[in-house]
Amino acid sequence: MALCLEHSVMYKALAERRIAGMEREQNSLMDQIDKIHGVRSGARYPPRPTPVVISGGITLNKVHVEQGAIAGVANAGSNVGSIMSRSLQSSSAIKS
Questions:
Q1: Is 84 exposed, middle or buried, given 0-12, 13-18 or 19+ CB atoms closer than 10 A?
Q2: Could you tell me if 27 and 45 are in contact, meaning their C-beta atoms sit under 8 angstroms apart?
Q3: How far is it, in rounded angstroms, from Cα 40 to Cα 63?
Q4: What angle do CA 8, 21, 10 make, to 5 degrees?
Q5: pTM score
Q6: What's the CA gap between 25 and 19, in Å, rounded?
Q7: For the chain, which residues make up each domain, given as ranges?
Q8: Along the 96 residues of the chain, how does pLDDT read in single tens digits?
């Protein structure tokens, strides 16, 4: 099933909540069986870690690229300052 990014994230979150709920339910049922029989019947699902919620200010760095030729390199995470200086040097060498 092809979903857009937003709905894909929502679907995955819903599926994770359903699985976590089923794990808790199975653990509870196993505990009830243990109480009835008086013997531990098997392994349990471990508790899931608490999700990390990032709150507060988020800094996004803006990169302005004037020439499309270096956009791929800039987006690859290279040092933009050195790329721009090399690009300007090469363009001035080409003009002269």
A1: middle
A2: yes
A3: 59
A4: 15
A5: 0.49
A6: 10
A7: 1-45, 65-96
A8: 688 888 998 999 999 999 999 999 999 999 999 999 998 888 899 988 887 777 776 666 766 666 655 555 555 555 555 555 555 555 555 555
